[in-house]
Amino acid sequence: MDGARSIWLVNNAASGSNDGKALEELDQCLGSHGFRIAHRTVFPEQDLPTPAILDAAVIECLAVFAGDGTVNALIGTLAGWSGAVLVLAGGTMNLLYHRLHGERSLDEVIAALADGDARRHRPGIIRSRHGDALAGVLAGPGASWGSVREAMRDQAALEMAGTAINAIQETLTGKQIACLEPKVGNDEGYPLINLTPTDVGIEIDAYAATTAKDYLDQAWALAKRDFRQGPHDRLGTPTRVRLASTGGSAFGLLIDGEQSECGAEEEFTLVRSEVDLLATA
What we know:
The chain is α+β, with helices and mostly antiparallel strands. Helix 6 (145-153) packs antiparallel against helix 7 (157-173). Mean pLDDT is 84; it is low at 157-161 and 218-225. The longest helix is centred in the middle third of the chain and has 17 residues, at 157-173. It has 8 helices and 17 strands. Helix 3 links the parallel strand 3 (61-66) and strand 4 (84-89).
């Protein structure tokens, strides 16, 4: 391993693709492409590294093998760092991974980095008073799908079935969410609104109650794991979005897959990431 490039690895044992075999294969893949894991952080058992810690260790590249929630926490900790973060597919959804690398496999991504074909990029992200979203925000009573997500992460089939039933019921009968700014979509609102950051704006996708039921009934039965594949209406791609509950009550949020409670009205703005991420797509 003489001449190997040092890398700091962060992983989360509770994430969807972080079993011992997957970690061993990742270690081998990094080694075969000339990288050496100089330091390792297992989150949340260990604290995430800070810019000062990484600089003291002379680390210029940090790889994170975890889900979107852990990646979110890490990027928030590293704001202002001069190095670059390599996001790998170590979670359940891996939405940010696909945003940065498309459909490339883990080996292809690491090979691209080794060959100098990965570029530094500061993608657009969604900022709100509840935190930043690098992968996306789900708003509405349908945010109860976070409970299903946790059951899926733990591979708890019976729990998933029960929480899925509750989530479908809440999605179809809960208070609706409307887009106030820009003024688009149905005035009556929707049970689910998904916000996805891009480099030019925030994609607003709205899921009507009937199509949500049609999709949810079959999507979770088939374990597709991503409601966003279901039928929906694209309402626009502005740089600022204001959502509100049509009933005037608080609604739920999933920010990069992590649950958060908010008020009856919330604002979301497109900003740039404050950390360089490595992209190969």
